[in-house]
Amino acid sequence: MPSTSSVAIIDYGSGNLRSAAKAFERAAREAGMSIDIRVTSEPEQVRSADRVVLPGVGAFADCKAGLAALPGMTATLEEFAIGSGRPFLGICVGMQLMASVGREHGDHVGFGWIPGEVVPLAPADPRLKIPHMGWNDLMVLATDHAVLAGLADGAETYFVHSYRMIPEDPAHILATADYGGPLPAIVGRDNIVGTQFHPEKSQAAGLRMISNFLKWRP
User: Fold this and answer.
1) Which domain holds residue 49?
2) Tally of structural domains, the chain
3) Does residue 1 lie in a domain region?
4) Distance, C-alpha 27 to centroid of its chain
5) Nearest Cα residue to 172 out of 70, 102, 84, 100
6) pTM
7) Most-buried pick from 27, 53, 136, 142 (CB within 10 A)?
8) Domain-embedded: residue 169
9) Residue 2: is its pLDDT beyond 50?
10) Chain segment 84-95, per-residue pLDDT in tens
11) Residue 1 pLDDT more than 70?
């Protein structure tokens, strides 16, 4: 991979950005890749990046508002994810924002990149607590997707969330986890992918997925 390759991690006041940056730096180093990992709130740096990562922690509407407060950022993300064809990764609420609508404390318009809605978790087992917090096993559906290469069923990943994304097209669900019923753990289409779990906190499985994302050429 060329030495000029870069990843922009969006800083809009949501998410543990240092943790994410360190995980991407480690994955690149262990894979022998020379990559510039940038934590940025500047649309120009996003526009020029080879890959973009949108983290997110908190409420759907708050995260959407945080992005809207950065002049030009929402339009730049749309241009990058939909117009450029370059790899885009959304993490947790960053993934949920790709849906059409989030139904957390009212209805809030999402990006609509993966048509669907974000709704409250409703485990069939009432003993299961909300938020869903901790380690859970993946069930990989898209076994041929490059970003999921080497992730076997049962790979452990770390979740912290109270809402789940429900894509209109089941083909956009790349992997699931079970928490009183199946929930989408990885979604994607074309050059965009999203994880409900936090790959930067998911140790071996998370580093593998990050490394795959850094090599991905959709």
Assistant:
1) 6-215
2) 1
3) no
4) 16
5) 100
6) 0.95
7) 53
8) yes
9) no
10) 999 999 999 999
11) no
CATH number (domain holding residue 208): 3.40.50.880
Instruction: Report the catalytic residues.
Output: 92, 198, 200
| C-beta pairs of 196-199 under 8 Å, 24+ apart in sequence | 196/92, 196/95, 196/96, 196/159, 196/161, 196/164, 196/165, 197/92, 197/136, 197/157, 197/158, 197/159, 198/91, 198/92, 198/157, 198/158, 198/159, 198/160, 199/23, 199/91, 199/157
Greatest CA separation for the chain: 51
Across 137-157, average pLDDT: 96
Q: How confident is the model at residue 13 (pLDDT cuts 50, 70, 90)?
A: confident
Token pair in block for residue 15? 């998410």
In a domain, 96, yes or no: yes
pLDDT digits (tens, 9 = 90+) for 29-71: 999 999 999 999 999 999 999 999 999 999 999 999 999 999 9
Average pLDDT over residues 2-12: 84
Q: Is residue 23 part of a domain?
A: yes
Integer CA distances (angstroms), 26 to 207, 212, 218, in order = 8, 13, 23
